Amino acid sequence: MQVSRRGWLKNAGVACFGAASGGLAASLCGASTPSGAGAPPLPWPYVKLDPDAVAAAAYEMHYKGGCCFAVSGSIIGELAKKVGAPFTTWPTAVMTYGGAGVAGVGSLCGALNGAAMVTFLLAGSSEKEKQSKASEITRDIFNWYAQTALPTFRPAQPKFETVKVICRSNLCHVSVTKWCKASKCKFSSKEREERCACLSGSVAKHTVELLNAHLAGEFKAAYKLPAEAQKCRDCHDKGSAREDSRAQMDCGVCHFTKTPHPQL
Amino acid sequence: MQVSRRGWLKNAGVACFGAASGGLAASLCGASTPSGAGAPPLPWPYVKLDPDAVAAAAYEMHYKGGCCFAVSGSIIGELAKKVGAPFTTWPTAVMTYGGAGVAGVGSLCGALNGAAMVTFLLAGSSEKEKQSKASEITRDIFNWYAQTALPTFRPAQPKFETVKVICRSNLCHVSVTKWCKASKCKFSSKEREERCACLSGSVAKHTVELLNAHLAGEFKAAYKLPAEAQKCRDCHDKGSAREDSRAQMDCGVCHFTKTPHPQL
Description:
Two copies of one chain form a homodimer. Chain A is built from eight helices and no strands. Chain A is mainly α. Chain A has a domain at about 50-215.
């Protein structure tokens, strides 16, 4: 059901009037109520999902609102179908912001940004233990992404066959440029759009697989930093002599490995 | 009001029973309702906020849930006080995920990630024109962040005085490392936590200033890519011969400017 903004506010008023004793509805009425008081606490109730169904939904959603919208929306959408509230109250469109590395900036891959948000929503909370677990799952998704030839998802009827690349990074522009070089396609091409739709399917599927494992109490991180980067951490991480770099990434992608720019 | 998960679900049930004719409450009941059907469409109704009040709130919130939680939660929290619904329904804690460059990875700065999400929530939508406007505001925040000596916000009673640095990047680990070098403090120090709390205040304040300008119909992007990076874009951007790099960042921070690592 699509609801206009005016219609929604009117309906919220009806809910206030009709069910003032309900905590949710009551909280919607009070202008002095703090943000979040009308939302259930985290984690929201996850149930086992079909990774392939979610991947197919993410692939389709990518063509409507981009990578971050697709990964977060496909998982929350499946939960809305199976569980209903609170997932039906999530403003799905907001995650459009993360597309193309946030507003086209080319920073953090939006598929990963969406996966990280959803992982915290479904496994995290303000409790330290749950927060650590959600972060551990998220870092495993990030390391998998950097170390795997992607996309792994192929739709039933692909628009183009897609070259797979290992990008060694969580950044959109690194991932896209490495794919452009391997495929010899431009970044505004339909082939690149199809590749990123398949990437959204891949990330959504992998995220659901890890969330299913977490639900079953069987999650174990499977991807570590590369040995070379771990060597960097030995001197720069917490507890080291320098302790000047807070990062869990493959350092050599950007640092100390560059060839000079070709002569212009 | 704090609501337990069980209490929230029970209350949602009350709302369904008591106000079945209300669109919001009704949508909360249906397990087959798609995600987002119970949320009002974007943009959510922004009203003019006091940038200084929001900055002070973000600084305090940083110490509770980190940068991404602080920037998004301070702005949405002020709107929840002034407007009420739908801001009272936002699950504030979810944005904790973006802290320390997402789950401690050191990728995109969480203050910027939170600012970008909120900007889309308050200025964006699935309509192309609003989406472009939200992206334009977001990119201006990112460029301001990379080109400004931060933090600009200083609380009434700082725990430490903080060195300001220009970091030329939107990445957490670049921002933190440059500050560690300038301040000679370690990244796990209380001084670094204070600096990032002030940074959250700075980003929240600047975001509100731009959202206020947008509300008044007076927003104009003020920060461009540096001329050197624009020269890179001439050969790699959309419409160029190569068209192989989708990014709006200061390329030289990572590319072609590195000195070799000191001998180990």
